[in-house]
From TrEMBL, chain A:
GO terms for biological process: adenosine metabolic process; nucleotide metabolic process. Residues 17-56 are annotated as: Disordered. GO terms for molecular function: 5'-nucleotidase activity; magnesium ion binding; nucleotide binding. InterPro entries: 5-nucleotidase (IPR010394). One of its GO terms (cellular component) is cytosol. This is 5'-nucleotidase, cytosolic IAa. It comes from Xiphophorus maculatus (Southern platyfish).
Automatic annotation (TrEMBL), chain B:
This is Cytosolic 5'-nucleotidase 1A-like. GO terms for molecular function: 5'-nucleotidase activity; magnesium ion binding; nucleotide binding. It comes from the Eukaryota. GO terms for cellular component: cytosol.
Length: 372, 261
């Protein structure tokens, strides 16, 4: 394994990419459901409480109740005693707020960015919009609303589907990112083209910034497709290096979280435009097992061609990611391999698993560190 | 002069305990119904009629002696329709609709019929009819072409703000009381089934208010005995896409509070 010095490398940006705006994917919209105007223009004036933005203008992040809050006790009731008892328990404890879950610091940080954006652009709807999406029955609704109020979270949209799949609603709300505790639902979302990841509660939580949102991404099978990972898994490390060298100038295909990074980038540029590059409350990181001098080049060239800026790119050349993440302290780290997710969690980083690509076949078996 | 005719094909319900709903001629039979034929084609109310029947079946499965069932009346609302009485009865029997009675009334006295028959919810395709009935204390619901694509296995009721249905559909004290009565019945029917596999599903959609408005509605409905299954707080987001996913059979906005305005 070649040891490389772990220097942070700034990536120069190219053209500004437009924020992804997916057209409504619900087929025919029935005119009569629309009724009168959707928006009363008078209601768009700023009142004491800010108005939530229109979904197509905002960066919509959907979180499930199980990752936003800690609901282990209630989960146990559900598993051991069934759904009726579970709902009865929830109603009985309606006035007890839930404790914060793994996605909580991330959501708080999104809120902090929104506050800064509103200061600079009071009329803009290009903000983060957080939606609570849960399979729970509306019986749990009052407890969830009480909890949101207790923690002072700015969440004005939610979706309690009472058991049916929320995928249709995710699409209707132009969701840019979906976080859930359930891998099955995350897979369903990914299959529909929605960036999604499974979150876990780490045993200890390192403190993260309350004023700067930090998001870290793995490269292959997260930002990029898993094409190179396939080569590595089937033919080994040497073949991987050879393949990457030969294809250095050919762009990698995009992965499931490229769109989210793009959305973050667009918001970052709004701060740069007002001279706040150094003080930007959003910071992005690439944390990859690729090596800076060899296989990493293709990753950088791809990002540049996509016009995506990433603030820090860390090429670990196969070294464990845990210690580096512990230094960065991201609010969330996306990786396609459970091995890395667990490693990060051990050191207190909130890591989310993106169940995409070839690594899913190897997740259970792979326990050795992989060098690239 | 109003005449009421029993449909001998259908077992009559216990008038004291049944939940009486009325559906207009124009909703049961399609607009082509006025071409002089004696057997009318079915209109936008078909899925609703089917699903009300389904709920009754499931209730009787649970308890064969159940009396709290939906009791459906067909009502005519103008003189021309009133004169088609035999064709109406024929067509109803032909299609095997579970309609227990017919009220042959005109535009002048149909509301009186509704009141006299203890109708708890009046289904119509005509906005004016709905307005007038509500003013007289009979809760109303509008049916339209969207009603056609609703499921027939599960009755989906949507609770929402008044503004969504008809901005000027004011409610009176009388209609509010009747609405609450109806909601209580719905709640009781729902209680007879478990969380999953229920033939009734209640959904709350708050379009403009925030989470506190939604919370208020949930509590208000709960105090009437209605446990909502699904809740969507839109916070100003367009409701079209969500409504087309939910496919409710009808919308209700009276009888519970929502912190509107």
């Amino acid at each position: 394994m070649v040891k490389m010095s772990l220097d942070a490398i700034q990536v120069m940006s190219g053209q500004v990419k437009e924020l992804k705006v997916s057209p409504s994917s619900n087929g025919d919209t029935r005119g009569s459901w629309e009724g009168k105007e959707e928006f009363d223009p008078n209601q768009l004036e700023l009142t004491a409480k800010p108005k939530p933005p229109k979904p197509e203008n905002a960066v919509t992040v959907a979180v499930s109740s199980r990752v936003l809050f800690r609901t282990e006790r209630e989960q146990k009731v559900f598993e051991q005693k069934g759904v009726e008892e579970y709902l009865r328990y929830q109603i009985e404890h309606e006035n007890e707020p839930f404790a914060p879950g793994p996605a909580f610091p991330f959501v708080k940080a999104l809120d902090a960015v929104n506050t800064r954006l509103r200061e600079l652009y009071p009329q803009s709807e290009e903000l983060f919009d957080i939606v609570l999406v849960t399979y729970n029955h509306a019986h749990v609704g009052i407890r969830l609303i009480n909890t949101i109020n207790h923690h002072n979270l700015f969440i004005e949209r939610f979706c309690m589907t009472g058991g049916s799949s929320p995928i249709g609603y995710l699409k209707a709300w132009h969701t840019n990112l979906y976080l859930s505790a359930d891998a099955e639902k995350v897979r369903e979302a990914l299959a529909e083209g929605i960036a999604a990841a499974t979150m876990f509660m780490p045993e200890k939580l390192t403190e993260v910034s309350e004023s700067q949102l930090r998001v870290a991404f793995d490269g292959d099978a997260v930002l990029f497709s898993d094409e190179s990972e396939r080569i590595f898994k089937t033919h080994g490390l040497d073949k991987f290096f050879e393949h990457e060298k030969e294809n250095e100038d050919r762009l990698l295909d995009h992965g499931p979280l490229k769109g989210f990074l793009e959305a973050l980038g667009k918001l970052q540029k709004k701060f740069y435009a007002k001279g706040q590059r150094l003080d930007c409350p959003i910071r992005t990181y690439l944390v990859t097992a690729r090596s800076a001098a060899s296989s990493g080049i293709r990753a950088l060239k791809t990002l540049r061609a996509w016009g995506l800026e990433i603030d820090e790119a860390l090429f670990l050349a196969g070294a464990p990611k845990g210690p580096m993440l512990e230094k960065i302290r991201p609010h969330i780290y996306f990786d396609d391999q459970m091995f890395h997710v667990e490693g990060a969690a051990e050191m207190g980083t909130v890591a989310a698993h993106v169940p995409y690509g070839i690594a899913q076949k190897y997740n259970s078996q792979q326990k050795m560190s992989s060098g690239k | 002069m109003v005449s009421t005719v029993t449909n001998s094909d259908v077992k009559q319900k216990d008038v004291d305990q049944a939940v009486v709903v009325a559906v207009t001629f124009a909703a049961v039979f399609g607009p082509e119904a006025e071409d002089g034929s004696t057997v009318y084609r079915l209109g936008v109310a078909l899925p609703l009629l089917q699903v009300l029947q389904r709920v009754n079946e499931r209730l009787l499965e649970k308890n064969p002696a159940e009396h709290q069932l939906f009791d459906v009346i067909l009502i005519t609302t103008d003189s021309w329709q009133q004169q088609q009485n035999s064709s109406i009865i024929n067509s109803t029997r032909h299609h095997g609709l579970e309609i227990s009675r017919f009220c042959f009334s005109t535009e002048d006295n149909y509301i009186e019929s509704l009141v006299q028959n203890n109708v708890q919810l009046f289904f119509t395709t005509d906005g004016n009819e709905a307005l007038q009935a509500t003013h007289q204390g009979v809760p109303s619901a509008l049916l339209d072409k969207n009603s056609v694509s609703c499921p027939s296995e599960q009755l989906r009721v949507l609770f929402c703000e008044k503004a969504i249905i008809q901005p000027n559909m004011g409610s009176t004290e009388a209609s509010k009381k009747s609405a609450q009565n109806f909601l209580a019945h719905l709640g009781q029917m729902r209680q007879k089934f478990g969380v999953f596999d229920s033939p009734l599903c209640f959904t709350l959609v708050t379009s403009h208010g925030g989470k506190d408005s939604c919370c208020c509605a949930l509590k208000s409905l709960r105090s009437l005995g209605v446990s909502v299954d699904e809740a969507y707080c839109l916070g100003g987001a367009p409701r079209g896409p969500i409504l087309s996913l939910l496919r409710p059979h009808f919308l209700l906005s009276d009888g519970f509070s929502l912190l509107e305005g």
